[in-house]
Amino acid sequence: MAEIRSMSPLHYLVIALLILMPASSQAQGVADGDRLTFSGFGTLGLIHNSSDEAAFVRDLGQPKGAQEGWSARTDSLLGAQAALKLNDRFDVTLQGISRYHYSGDFSPQLTWAFVRYTPSPAWQWRAGRLGWDTYMLSDSQYVGYTYSWIRPPVDHYGILQLACIDGVDVTFRHPLGGGLAWVKLFAGRSDSHLVLSEALSAEMEVSHLYGGHLNYAIGPWQFRASYAQADNASDFSVDRDAAAKTPSTLLLNTLLEQAFTYDSIQLYSLGATYEQNSWQLQAMQNRSVTDQDGRIDSGFISAGYRVGQATPYVMYSRIQTSFPDIPAGESFRQQTWSLGLRYDVATNLALKTQLDRIHVLEPGLLWRNTDADWEGERITLVSLGLDFIF
Asked: Domains of the chain by range and CATH?
């Protein structure tokens, strides 16, 4: 997930309160103890990388990765939420996350800051800084306690270029055919910072972003179909010293700059989940198409089975790209087999371990500090994690 440019939380909060104070004063009172709530989540994570030729990163917002040996910075994070209920229809929500990102440290980022208006159980309106949930799980991918894996599959979620949007969305829910259908539409803008290699980064300024998704839940099944379009302007920054180290770095930077130079991009996604008794099944397929005829295809399938407090699981994920100015043999391709176990220690605490076997074909989009002669290989990651909510 891309780096989010910082914005003052006070800016959003003041606007929200100014809008809602008149409505709050006219509404029925809400008990003081129920008006303001706080919650949080976090992950303590460790990764062991078997390779001394490349460093693993979780997403395009991380400048450095987990090199050979153990590393705690890739997955570890801490998040906090505050929700203020003003009356039966209006509330304000803030969320901040501290995780390793573009600045090279764990400085907190504001990821949510929105006003919500709920005129009826069927309708919901929000305005402010919103999580971008076009894809299933993308809005909660940092809350590790909510899923069985150590981390969402990086082949799929690691290349997402936006973490949140500044704008509005509306959701409508309605019973249908024995299940529940809902649709969400959104529009806004977003700025993010991508780290494409040690020597190349990009400022992504999305001036217009709009789209939505259709959902249907019935019994143990849930389905989602999504579409979004973003108008983008990219400003690339090259570290000449790093780029001059090896000819392969110069080639990689050229390929990456071609891949991420476009004026607009369309995103399509299909997803499904199944949860009943002990089974947990998930599958998703994404396609991103640029106005330069570039294409990124990614997807994953996961199966888990709960036995008491333990949930063993297996997952397969992949990513493949195609760009007209890049030879087919030099496109980005990667696939991963994962085997893991989640153990619920308590109602708010889970221990996890995961083994990833990753097949990388050069250039590796989600790798850092690659050796000059690195042409892709099979790499083994061993991960340990402690996820919690409070």
From this structure: 47-63+122-389 (2.40.160)
